Amino acid sequence: MLAPACHLLSLLLVMGTGGTMPSPQGPPQGCYVAEEAGEQTFRCSQAGLTAVPTGIPNDTRKLYLDANRLASVPAGAFQHLPVLEELDLSHNVLAHLSGAAFQGLAGTLRHLDLSANQLASVPVEAFVGLQIQVNLSANPWRCDCALQEVLRQVRLAPGTGTGIVCGPGARPDLVGQEFLLLAGEEELCGTGRGGARRSTDVALLVTMGGWLALVVAYLAHYVWQNRDETRRPLKRAPVPPPVRSEEDSSTLSTLV
């Protein structure tokens, strides 16, 4: 009878918590659960974490993992948090994001902070389907096509755009430049307004160069042909035999 009673008690606990099962494992040291502005919050700021912790309640709406030593976010790291709305991963040492890092959060996540990390590039797949406002500032960005594609998928947090700067891994002529200003002038994926404009300019130059080459070739052929003509000796026209008139013929007959 003890086992069924325990099972019934578990069901009652689930119903009493709105259908969410409490995590069987407590939060790591330095982490705590709180209610902020009426929303379930899990804070692990400055907890010395090197990996995404376990034991996060699945009814968490705000998750703070900032100021730790997280170096990567694996696939499905937060998929057990079905109502997560805000995720703070700032001030870590993140250098890698899985393409499925935010799997399962497409319908809920609204705010994502990835600032002050070591991100040089991120996979665009990680942000597909997310309707989020993101902070990408203070990272050593490579300023590549992947970043340009990500910015087409997300909205930047207000006032953070100027902090997206090309880092040491970017092309030498891009290092230190603000990416948003750069993206307005140069298309890094080879398409779009900037790429189309440069492609049109190149095509026009190639066409003009082709026509110029044809004109030069024609002029050269014309000049050489005329030089050959001028070197040839002039042919004298044949002199026709003199035509005798009827008067001359009658005079000749008289003499005879």
TrEMBL record:
Gene Ontology CC annotations of this record: plasma membrane
Ranges that cross the membrane: 202-224
Keywords attached to this entry: Leucine-rich repeat, Membrane, Repeat, Signal, Transmembrane, Transmembrane helix
Segments for region (Disordered): 231-256
Signal peptide start-end: 1-22
InterPro entries: Leu-rich_rpt, Leu-rich_rpt_typical-subtyp, LRR_dom_sf, LRR_TM_domain-containing
Segments forming a coiled coil: none
UniProt cross-references to Pfam families, sorted A to Z: LRR_8
Protein name: Leucine rich repeat containing 3C
